[in-house]
Amino acid sequence: MDNVCDDQVYSEIFRAHSKTIFNYIYYKFGNEEKAHDAVQEAFVKLWEHCAKVTPEKARAFVSTVANNLYLNVIKAEKVRLKHREPGGNVTRESPEFLLEEQEFKEKLETALSALPENQRTTFLLNRIDGKTYAQIAELEGVSVKAIEKRMHQALKSLREDIDGI
Known about the structure:
CATH class of the largest domain: Mainly Alpha
Low-confidence stretches: none
Order of helices and strands: HHHHHHH
Distance between the termini: 54 Å
Number of helices: 7
Structural class: mainly alpha
């Protein structure tokens, strides 16, 4: 088959790649709902362009579309994120526990957000999603050596930033 217009081929591509692409975009967005939206829209675009895409190129097509959607959303939300107000949560935990928990979260978020995007994505794909360096390299379109270097740099930075946890 030369394209993905067949329902069965399309479904197989969706089953094989949707979770990986979702996780990749989720780690970039940091928002599950937006990641689902981007992946869903990317697969809709695959269906709309199914006659032009071969099954072998489908994963790359969907990954690229989802990543571009991510970049467009980030660009559109820059101003909104700058001016958002943090919401207050009510809980029954002790003030000491809440303070300690908040400090830990802030330290972790700061350390992760301080990483360059490629290091953060590589770290989360490997440590949270369990992807191998080879799988991450294929997804990112770089060599395994590049992924190894990113991971080394990410771990080094995190060790320095999260000292004492």
